[in-house]
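Deliverable D2.4 — example input (structure tokens):
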């Protein structure tokens, strides 16, 4: 700090530093005043002499590096206290107290970064005003030196209730109805040709690459835990080779010895038009292609009623697939996006429930991998939906009867 600036700072009050009274600094944590400046802070009573000399910088100049502005914002005779570690004092061994007009010079970076509580209250506020938002000193002042008291203490009972509620909520989320179809270790609960189906690195692998002869017909790995009707199914899959695969649902076993299955299929095809399409294996064939909304009628077959956004996907990479079967509505998703939606209104040929199976296609050598398969049945939700619909119909009927009653009296 220049000598003229220091001299000006002392002359503003009209008295020398020794006779000036500085407001005591208050400790914001304990609300107790900090010790004031020494009685003889200025070296002389001569007003022509400066009342303050800059403290010597420690040897480590990096501690003084900061992006805080040193431009004075307001001339004032107020002096604030700061603590700068002495160059000769080891870390944590003590500090040297210095005094200077606060608005004319920022305190050394070390006094803030060392965690000393030398600056409190208004002093910290003024330093923040001259610091850039990204300055680490500002962060330390805000979060280390200024305590933020709570408006009122939190009762132990309320805290306990909040913790218990959080635990219960986490348990409900964990038990949200999802059931894994694959244990990640072996094919327990599944039935299929062991020559082509195996488990590797936590994934179900179906491959015809090692077979001497090509498959003459499609073969399937069948889930053995019964039939399902309304449900939501999620899985991740990856297909390599010049072929395709799929996931059967609401299907039926045609030949148990050869693991042949027929019914609805979520198709995994390299052609973007057929990826995630609805295919009726050993039945009506293609019902809904990628990017379509279709209604399947008993007469006239599939009829396109709308379009969906096409989602190009690399079949050779891991992708997340999802299907929702509820009543006559069948919806297929790829990586969270709806890509095919079908309403099968053909009462004679549609399926209300059936088995789940994984397909390995006949033809050229191929490999398909499945993991993270899980299912969530919708039976209970369907019952709840029917109950609510019945209640709504009953309420509407009672409201109509109440409206007609006054008209009859007139």
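Example output (designed residues):
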């Amino acid at each position: 700090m220049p000598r003229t600036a220091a001299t000006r700072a002392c002359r503003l009050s009209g008295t020398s530093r020794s006779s000036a009274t500085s407001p005591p600094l208050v400790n914001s944590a304990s609300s107790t005043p900090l010790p004031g400046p020494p009685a003889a802070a200025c070296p002389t009573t001569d007003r022509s002499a400066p009342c303050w000399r800059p403290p010597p910088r420690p040897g480590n100049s990096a501690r003084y590096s900061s992006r805080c502005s040193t431009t004075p914002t307001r001339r004032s005779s107020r002096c604030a206290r700061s603590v700068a570690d002495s160059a000769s004092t080891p870390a944590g061994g003590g500090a040297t107290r210095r005094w200077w007009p606060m608005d004319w010079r920022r305190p050394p970076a070390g006094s803030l970064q060392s965690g000393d509580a030398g600056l409190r209250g208004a002093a910290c506020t003024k330093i923040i005003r001259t610091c850039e938002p990204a300055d680490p000193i500002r962060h330390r002042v805000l979060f280390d030196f200024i305590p933020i008291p709570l408006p009122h203490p939190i009762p132990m009972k309320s805290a306990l209730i909040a913790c218990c509620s959080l635990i219960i909520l986490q348990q409900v989320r964990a038990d949200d109805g999802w059931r894994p179809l694959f244990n990640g270790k072996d094919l327990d609960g599944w039935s299929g040709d062991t020559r082509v189906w195996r488990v590797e690195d936590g994934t179900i692998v179906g491959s015809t690459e090692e077979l001497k002869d090509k498959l003459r017909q499609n073969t399937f790995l069948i889930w053995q835990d019964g039939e399902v009707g309304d449900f939501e199914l999620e899985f991740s899959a990856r297909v390599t080779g010049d072929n395709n695969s799929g996931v059967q649902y609401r299907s039926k076993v045609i030949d148990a010895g050869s693991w042949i299955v027929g019914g609805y299929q979520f198709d995994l095809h390299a052609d973007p038009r057929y990826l995630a399409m609805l295919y009726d294996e050993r039945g009506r064939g293609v019902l809904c292609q990628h990017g379509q909304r279709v209604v399947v009628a008993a007469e006239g077959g599939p009829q396109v009623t709308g379009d969906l956004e096409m989602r190009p996907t690399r079949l050779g990479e891991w992708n997340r697939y999802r299907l929702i079967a509820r009543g006559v509505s069948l919806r297929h998703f790829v990586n969270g996006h709806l890509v095919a939606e079908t309403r099968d209104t053909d009462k004679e040929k549609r399926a209300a429930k059936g088995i789940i199976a994984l397909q390995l296609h006949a033809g050229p050598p191929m490999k398909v991998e499945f993991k993270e398969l899980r299912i969530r049945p919708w039976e209970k939700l369907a019952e709840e939906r029917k109950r609510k619909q019945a209640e709504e119909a009953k309420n509407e009927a009672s409201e109509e009867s109440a409206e007609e009653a006054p008209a009859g009296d007139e």
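The longest helix spans residues 379-409.
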